[in-house]
UniProtKB/TrEMBL annotation:
Protein name: DUF1648 domain-containing protein
Keyword Acetylation in record: no
Pfam families with a match to the protein in the record: DUF1648
Organism: Flavobacterium cyanobacteriorum
GO terms under biological process: response to toxic substance
Domain (DUF1648) ranges: 24-70
Record keywords, A-Z: Membrane, Transmembrane, Transmembrane helix
Length: 165
């Protein structure tokens, strides 16, 4: 593999807005979890099956794994997004297409970061509601919604990337 160009990408206002929204959502998930922690019973749902029904239970401190994992993924992807020249691409990266390909790829990662935080936030929210007897689980809608949130932008940017040659 030949050396790919290393470019400094300029962020648009939309890119900056998505980043800010992502950070605000991280803080919101933490606040949601911390505020509700004391009111949780000692045993809470820790795993859900494909139908959104709780099928695993554990200590209430395990609710903290949701904002921790969301934060680690968000920060990790934020760091990774600074190095688009190391990503895998469906097309060969050249000096002519590098800027467009890198921009598309970093936008995809930026959107996926926000989507991941939304998903973990919804799991935390529904887990808190379930633990407090307000719902029966995540709901049958959760898995299809999650798959749509992840795969629709992924397919969109994959198609966009293959057209940007």
């Amino acid at each position: 593999m030949k050396e790919r160009p290393k470019l400094k990408l300029e962020h648009t206002e939309a890119d900056k807005t998505v980043e800010i929204i992502g950070w605000l959502l991280i803080f919101a998930v933490w606040i949601l979890t911390i505020i509700n922690y004391q009111s949780l019973p000692d045993i809470i749902p820790t795993h859900y099956n494909g139908a959104g029904v709780a099928d695993g239970f554990g200590d209430k401190w395990m609710i903290l794994t949701l904002p921790i994992v969301a934060t680690v993924l968000f920060v990790g992807l934020t760091i990774l997004n600074k190095f688009p020249h190391i990503f895998n691409y469906p097309a060969e990266i050249t000096a002519d297409n590098a800027l467009r390909q890198y921009t598309n790829a970093t936008r995809l990662i930026r959107y996926l970061k926000v989507i991941i935080v939304i998903i973990f936030g919804l799991i935390a929210f529904q887990t808190i509601r379930h633990a407090n007897g307000q719902t029966e689980g995540l709901g049958i809608w959760f898995l299809p919604m999650t798959m749509g949130l992840i795969f629709i932008p992924l397919i969109y940017y994959l198609i966009k990337s293959t057209k940007t040659k």
